[in-house]
Fold each of these.
Amino acid sequence: MPDQIVTRFAPSPTGFLHIGGARTALFNWLFARGHGGKFLLRIEDTDRERSTPEATAAIHQGMNWLGLNYDGDVISQFNRADHHSAIARHLLDTGKAYKCFSTQKEIQDFREQARAEGKSTLFRSPWRNANFTSHPDTPFVIRIKAPKEGTTLIRDRVQGDVTIQNEQLDDMVLLRSDGTPVYMLAVVVDDHDMGVTHVIRGDDHLNNAARQMMIYEAMGWSVPVWAHIPLIHGSDGKKMSKRHGALGTQEYQFLGYPAAGMRNYLTRLGWSHGDDEFFSDTQARDWFNLDGIGKSPARFDAKKLENLCGQHIAASEDAALLQELRDFMTLTGAPTVSEHKTVLLRDAMYCLKAHAKTFLELIEKAEFILKDRPLNYDAKAAKHLNTTSCSMLEELTPQLQNVSWTREGLEASLSAYADAREIKFGKIAGPIRTALAGRSITPSVYDMMLVLGRDETVARLQDAAGYQSDASNT
């Protein structure tokens, strides 16, 4: 293994950072960080028509949300085009590449004829060994001289040894007729100049490795360690797409998934450490290695993602979780929470975070804190406020003025009231829940009373005691 591991993530800014790209970035980040190495970011923005500043910003936002910090400055592939071109001309000058004057029509005609005759459509340029004195004064491309015989061996840490017959390799174009370098050349030059030791990317690039190795060998450069990871599939076993609910990382962020849960899930998506499912960032960095990556495509499972996110929310320290929640509310444009309610949210985290899978669910459970009096009662909750229940709430409020404001004290007081009325506790729990939260899905009534405090609890019960639902008046 090299003295220092260097990995990179090299997305094209032509759209959002999709979930597969995020996982590739995460694998590179984990491998570098776990080995004390460097993780670099390169934006492959050579496609000027499709590359946009908005897409670049989305890449940065997705990586920032996932906590994938990179080392050094961001590299723009487009800004290095002159250097890429210089490498192509160096290969030309050293006889390892040549000028090809074949036109697109000539190449197309060749392929059509080859198909008609049932032959290989791999184009063999007639200019490969032509004397420069025969070169016409017409536009040309620069092609690398591919090996014609033997094999190319790709030693891949995930896929194993992959052998390519050299007769299947064409003389790849390095420089277009307008003088611009092709992607395959730019990738190799950039990876070499950035000192990349391990190329961890999707297995749809596996065949590219053999073609890129031609450039490494022609330049006398060390070939990096290859690790081509299987793509992510949907639940039906087909390549992940929008029909499977595939979203950009930004959309998962807006849906309220915690970054730690997403990191855990994406790490586990195609990589394993025994039977471990739930683990911390520290464990992921310590455990992650290329040997744990499977060869088969991973299947995206939204329920498993939610489950892991719920576990991370439940395991979070209250102060850290509160800060994440506040950041999420700011991101989504939620109203600013007062300092008093922020304190209440902090105090309530112990009962809010249980069973919440996203920040949206956390906010839903915290509605009883975020709402102001007088509360609006939703239709389902309002059904609990009839003449009888409102009368019970009115009777309860004096008793709660002097009760010990502890769980034990509240449980004893409410149980004694139910016994005196010869009713089950559920008969008063529903009205109390409605009075305190205005909705049916909440933490327990005891938790809400403890968080809100005596004065706010009594005030909300008094408000509800004076309420008469439509159902109770008919």
Amino acid sequence: MTVGFLGLGVMGRPMAANLVNAGAELVTWTRSGAPLDGADQAGSVSEVFEKAETVLMMLANGDVIDEVLGRGAGEFERLVRDHTVVHMGTTSPDYSAGLAEAVHQAGGRYLEAPVSGSRVPAENAQLVAMVAGEKSDRERIRELITPMCRQAVDCGPVPNGLLMKLAVNTFLISMVAGLAESFHFAEGHGLDPALLRDVLDAGPMASFVSRGKADMLVDRDFPVQAAIADVHYNNRLITGAARQRGIASPLLDVCEELFSETERLGHGTADMAAVVTAIAARTERGTRSGSSRSGAGSADVAGPPS
């Protein structure tokens, strides 16, 4: 069976490469036009759908998906009819539910399979996929995406895959922001950041993520695994979904401010560990104003009540 793959970016390219390495007949399309070794490079999205009944998408956001699929422009229905569309990126759950309805109305099938993991896990086929859709489709798709994943988890109907992804990212984003703050705290007290890394690596909180981000924080070098701009986008999805259901999200509210500040400082393409630069900037602003206390958001300094 020929499988289609749309989007060969930071995550999509290694994911698609793992399918090729597992023997899949893959036809791919990407905006850059850069070919993938071992895959059939299509000249258009329409060609992908002509050659493949099942099409996986690893695209940046809902606007890009709508543009690529020609949604609202008459092309969409023709493309997806009698096809299975698998959304593996991250969008709002509401967007995914609406896309599912549109695909079904056009005579196609739709599943979510967003993944947890960054570039290196993608390269090493260690992603965790959260599969959602019609029960009859989920097992088939889980088998198809196995070469890209360490595990594919059945999450039930759409949009539970995207909701699960946002829950996972709530932990990831707050964890990395906390890790960055711990290094900033240590350095502010004159401690050796490499020694802090060693202590954390030896302790019960150590993980693949903490070890990788700690190395970046020690070296103050942030080669991208998960970019600040992308994490900020994910953070906004989480707080938006929380507001919609009246759910408190105090940690992610603060993180959204920090990642926004980091992006404004010019680090949008750096790894998410670069959030430490926004924390350091708050300290610097507080120092210049003569206070050691910095507050959240744009009101950086607040003294004690009189």
Amino acid sequence: MPGEEVAAPLSTVYRDYLRCLNERRWSELGTFVADRLSYNGKQFTLADYRALLEADTTATPDLQFNPEIIVADDEFVACRLSFRATPRHTFLGIEPTGTQVSFAEHVFYRFEGQRIVEVWSLIDKEAVREQMLRES
């Protein structure tokens, strides 16, 4: 109908979310993430989720969220993200060695009203650890 707002496809919303993360526009995170969400089965507030993301990007200032594969429907987004970063502080429970690491994250999101309400994330922490120890 004329004048009726059409929702953007979730793949577009998700790419905008990644841009927000990559540009560290933390004050805009609530545009993409609900006030309460589930992260790997644990209950988080938006502030908790923001703190998690800020901690990761503080530990690895050059961290960029690069989507390799995005699959989306009207409720879910699945993505393989690739990263290449140099941890400067403890990252994923691993002490930094000054080594640049490459790793992937496989992550699934459930959206309600175009905002993230559930996140399931899997990162191969052992691969990061092995790269850091090999180069130290």
Amino acid sequence: MQIILLTHERELTRKTNTGQLALATFPEVVKSIVWSRTAPDKNLVAMLASQQAKLLFPASDTEPALSNAQALLVPAQSTVIAAQRMPNQVVILDATWQEARKMLRQSPYLKTAARISLPPLMPESAFILRRNQQEGGLCTAECIIALWRQCGRAEQATLLASLFTELNSRT
């Protein structure tokens, strides 16, 4: 499974960007595309349109919000996805909650993309380096960790969790 971080340009220079941990540590399975309102990546648009890739985000704005990209493993009206049914590519909006909602609102191809979500009873986020976090939301690294745990990639999840804990403990 490939993880595609659709990264808001402001995240590229933030020292608190947790998506960069996964990108730097697992470049063979995590890649980043910088989001553009006016010039979206044509390959990404095609993958989402064909449902080769699924967007990790709540199915609607009325559902509990998921953070920085948090929306995993539960198809819109279904149960947790079994590992063999995981999409080949998962797109995660790598941004603050406010930026992620803006990205979704301003990108027709994201609005219509098939979505997957995290199970509703995920643990609270441990991310403390940013203010105004969405209640019930997770940061990008926490989403990836949860995704990997669900699809049996415990070693990758454990390594990323360790790196996230180290980053999160910096003041």
